């Protein structure tokens, strides 16, 4: 049928990751392609206890329509961690929604929007429908290079801590420089921080937000700390910006599910959050170490990578001209899946691959990397032949 | 501060209802202004049992990232009720999100969009950011008049069953006529049906969707049947349209909270849905009857109303020239709140008020109407003086 779709519809694409995950879930394929937390970390028992309690404690309030802003005690907990008041916080349906709402409130068609190169592909998916003109900023192991930021922009989308996909950690001077740039450029920064609490040696420097509270919108999530299925994240911004985001949120889904919110508030009361963060760090650190060893032992040394100091991902950089889609086909034949780098770039990509260690059992990591290394050898043999 | 907001931001407004609810929640004010279900109907015990069970049964799957489309058994149950396959169904974060996503997929700035006059104000809130050109269609007790539909339009947003705010029920011939119009006009109809299951004598005629499955998008919700705090609704549409809506959903929040979805699936397995629907109908019917009696006994007969045959609302039509905002001030002084009609109109409003009976205890309904009647007498005295 010839449906009267909006122009905007052409700018929406199904996530390549989504399609890949289907391939990756074929029997016999060991997937390093996921972007999901380790399910064995979900605090099932605590959630079960919390749920029973909140239905008693909050009664019908745990199930009724509730304020768009979110549950007060939850907002207060988030606010305290960032040194602001509870009314700076909006609870969102995951931090994915935070990106969408910020796009909705700030981006007119053709507006200059800075994204890191590469950046989180889900961020691009969320922003694309608003038809921004992307300006990309080069990154290295310390994240976006502030001196590469453009003179003018409306919005910059930055993931400073253990970035998806690169794992890069932005240092304190760069964070301050980004905040100063925002003031100069009259721009707003969306600081997306899903991984900041997953550090393997020291906590990341203070958020960019702390350097420019009127210019930076901070987005966080409970997906990687507790569980993504609750779909609960948050936006922290000064009340003038937040008022606009709240209105956009109200128009799009009234409020985030309140049962999940009261469960989280109860988990906070139970003192679970810090315990849980340590569980996550400890398991992922072990897996990161395993993957580091395996990559060093098996992978062709012409494939470059940094060892991430937190988060969930390794980012492999292949020699110029490597066709990572063709490599993926060979990898799948060898029984391993990864995400080719291309969809993480708003503009010109370079050959890369994202591997996760977060959701891969320790005894499978080495085998996964072996298969990948073998696939790369086969790729090279074929290409040279 | 002078933030670089998008043009779109100007088209977003905080819901007047939201502001009113603050007034209505002042001590001593008996609120007929709400649009929320009766909290005493929430199946607390069943939800508690279901929750304990699903955390056992689904384990980590009840908390992990899950497909955008939603939980298969839930989709299958919804599909069966409309005589389609499960892959015609997308689970949304309430039916509010369904309206937003349909707007996102279909409306370019200036596109002609038909809405009923009056219509659900939350629908207008959701569609406004997409900058449609509204064409309004007159309504009576049988809902929108098909002969008043324009020759051309891109989308029509229709609430055929116990409409919010009027309570109107569209009869079968009109439903067929709307479906035929959609074919002729190459338009898409968004059929919003949150109240169809809350009927007080007979079930409504089959949905418009059943008359034109390639042209009509059906939106439903669990908010009024089970509980709104779960934020779970759904869209049913042919797969070509649904694919676009799924992509929009993925970009905006990845998927709806899965814990709520498995709880609902469990409630279905427990056979609760039909039992619960009967509980809702029975309580609301009693409250509707009380309000009918009270309105007939106390309200000035120049205020016109139809007795709703389902849903949650009475819609009072005042004589031309009545200032319902001024009336509201007097009503609040008299200790009763209602929603003035104005925000339910995309174009020229007439003087009206929406009253709910759903969430008002039976022994308060008469007193509420007495206070309203008294406020109207005072309004008339003042105006004539």
Written account of the structure:
2 copies of one chain form a homodimer. With 385 residues, the first copy, chain A, is an alpha/beta fold. Chain A has 2 domains: 7-42 and 274-384, Aspartate Aminotransferase, domain 1; 44-272, Type I PLP-dependent aspartate aminotransferase-like (Major domain) (Aspartate Aminotransferase, domain 2, 3-Layer(aba) Sandwich), CATH 3.40.640. Chain A contains 11 helices and 13 strands. In chain A, strands 2-9-8-7-6-3-4-5 form an 8-stranded mixed beta sheet, with helices on both faces. The first copy, chain A, has a 3-stranded antiparallel beta sheet with strand order 10-13-12. A two-stranded parallel ribbon of chain A has the order 1-11. In chain A, helix 4 packs across helix 5. Chains A and B meet through helix 2, helix 4, helix 5, helix 7 and helix 8 of A and helix 2, helix 4, helix 5, helix 7 and helix 8 of B.
In short:
Two copies of one chain form a homodimer. Chain A is of the alpha/beta class.
Describe the SSE topology.
The structure is a homodimer of 385-residue chains.
Chain A: H1 16-24, E1 30-31, H2 44-57, H3 72-82, E2 89-92, H4 94-106, E3 112-117, H5 121-127, E4 133-140, E5 143-144, E6 155-158, H6 172-185, E7 188-192, E8 216-221, E9 233-236, H7 239-253, H8 258-269, H9 272-298, E10 313-317, H10 324-334, E11 336-337, E12 339-340, E13 352-356, H11 362-384
Parallel strand pairs in A: 1-11, 3-4, 3-6, 6-7, 7-8
Antiparallel strand pairs in A: 2-9, 4-5, 8-9, 10-13, 12-13
Helix pairs in contact in A: 2-8, 4-5, 4-7, 9-11, 10-11
